[in-house]
Amino acid sequence: MNGILEEAITQQANDIYILPIDNAKYVIKFHVDGQSYAFKDISEEEAQLMVSAIKYRAKMNISERRRPQLGRFQFDNIWIRVSTVGDFLNRETVVLRMIYQQQQKQQWLDFQQFQQIEAALPNSGLFVISGPTGSGKTTTLYRLLDKVSDDKLVLTIEDPVEIQQPKFVQLQVNEDASIYYDDLIKVALRHRPEVLLVGEIRDGTTAKAAVQAALSGHLVLSTVHAMSARDVILRLQDLGVEKDKLAVALSGVVYQRLLSTCDNQQAAIIDMLQATEIKHVLDGEQVPQFSKNWQEVLHHAIRTNKISKETCQAL
User: Long-range contacts of range 235-240, CB-CB < 8 Å, 24 or more positions apart?
Assistant: First the structure.
């Protein structure tokens, strides 16, 4: 298993998949730069030994093969999140999410978009970024906070800490010890940080705690799973945050994607809603899923051969 992890790190893979392909074989796949490819095939016996070793490292129940399980472990100073579940034939599927400590350099289809986020960042309120796993949300957030931290106390709460940054006070969720996001938000506020980063809003309790922190005068940045900037607002409402509190607390929402470029790199694109558009969504008005600026950046990237039409159409 160590050899596979070392190869994944060498290739800077985002994910490793261990998947059954027939009754006697498994395939190991790497997800690199937005693309998945088969690394090697292994026998079912090899797969079972490998999965047991992974679950042991991640402090998961080795004998439980049907129910979903989550865990994590560290390898070569890299945190690895583990997710397992068994299919209807009792064959386990495993996904390993590689979380690299170093902050990776991020390209943009249009760097002015990042400058727009910087300019839109308020002194207080809730600012949320959404996007698929591996879309560069954490890198964007840390880059935003890097300048802010020169004259403000920045405190982060993450699961786990993805990028070590000595300029920040960094706390880590520990589910084994029953220390969750909302618990750490309460602890964090006693330190009176001007800026609070909540790694991910996963449930109603965390959502309400983040909103309350924003309403108390802090700048709170976080991420949430949503398919567009507009859907971030709807998602927060689904999690039970009251409309009137969102109207006051929510300062900006961003949807981010990483797109494969024609020179085999990746570049970020964002769509952002601010106060006026947020109010329209909260009032139930019709708001396009993606803004005019999103479309313009995509079309310009196609015209200048930064991305292909196929990449754009696949969004």
Answer: 235/130, 236/128, 236/201, 236/207, 236/211, 239/201, 239/203, 239/204, 239/207, 239/208, 240/204, 240/207, 240/208
pLDDT tens digit sequence for 176-190: 778 889 889 988 888
| 259: its two tokens | 């797109």
Last residue of a domain, one of 50, 70, 99: 99
Pairwise CA distance, residues 184 & 209, whole Å: 10
Q: Where a domain ends, among 47, 68, 99? A: 99
Same domain, 75 and 182: no
* Confidence grade of residue 90 (pLDDT, cut at 50, 70, 90): confident
Whether residues 29 and 151 share a domain: the answer is no
| Domain identity same for 237 and 211 | yes
Which residues are bridge partners to 129 per DSSP? Answer: 223, 254
Q: Can you say whether residue 136 is alpha, beta or left, with left for phi > 0 and alpha for psi between -120 and 50 degrees?
A: left
pLDDT at 173: 87
Q: What is the CATH number of the domain that holds 141?
A: 3.40.50.300
Number of residues assigned to the chain: 315
User: Shortest CA distance to 160 belongs to which of 176, 147, 143, 146?
Assistant: 176
What does DSSP assign to residue 105?
P
pTM for this entry: 0.80
Residues 92, 176, single domain; the answer is no
Nearest Cα neighbor of 9 from 72, 70, 74, 56 is: 74
Q: Are residues 64 and 148 in the same domain?
A: no
Domain count, the chain: 2
Q: What is the CATH number of the domain that holds 95?
A: 3.30.450.90
Owner of token pair 């009176």: 192
pLDDT at site 154: 94
Range of the domain at 79: 2-99
Mean pLDDT (the chain) is: 92
Give pLDDT tens digits for 47-87: 999 999 999 999 999 998 888 888 889 998 888 989 999 88
CA distance 270 to 290: 10
